[in-house]
Structures are given as C-alpha cells and as structure tokens.
Amino acid sequence: MRQATTTGRLAQVETNSKPVLIYSTFPDEVTARTIARDLVAGGLVACVNVLGAMTSIYNWTGELHEDAEVAALLKTTTARADEVIAFVKSRHPYDNPALLVLPVAGGSAEFLAWIAAETGAAKQS
Length: 125
Hints:
Elements: E1 19-26, H1 29-41, E2 47-60, E3 63-77, H2 78-91, E4 99-103, H3 109-118, H4 121-124
Antiparallel strand pairs: 1-3, 1-4, 2-3
C-alpha cells in the first residue's frame, strides 16, 4: 500500500484504503456503544466517536417526530463501508437507520495510515 503523503493529501492512497466517515444515529448511548464495540472488535472500523445526546426533528410515516438520539462517527475505509453499513443495519433497532458515508479530503498521514491498518485495508489493496 502506498502511504498518504506527509501533507495529508489522499491522492497517493489506494482507492480501497481511502478513509471515510460514516455518520449514524442511535436511539440511546447503550445501543450506540454496543454496536460501536462490535464494529471495532471486528475490524470493520478503526474507531467510533459516540457523541452526546441530541434532538432529532423529522417526518416519518407522515408524522412529525421530535426524539432524543445519539449520533456517532465511524472511521473506516471505502473498502469496508458497505460491510459497515450492512453490519449496523442488521443490529440497529430502527427500520431505516441514518447511515451516510462521507468522504475524507485529508488529514494526518499517520492517522490515515492507522485507520487503514486497523480496518485491514492495507491487506486488501
């Protein structure tokens, strides 16, 4: 695997090793932490930041809802993103959980390499 440049640019990182963030929400911290631990233990993500409580306001099945939720940022690679989404969906209590894959434009070369190493992207490229 080619390493990210010292400036943090991703141009030289193999496509499957490129880091992504996956944003998701959960009904409570216990659910978020349980799924997060399983993702990290399974090598699907390098890290999950379980953020504090928030309020989500949304329409669902024609009704306006205002619910307490917990957001999480999952750090993984493009190679693992589909697996992470499938894993979260299979364990998430919502019928249609929020799962958004967000590209990473750059960052610390060492941190980006760590994400790739923790998710096995270096072996997959």
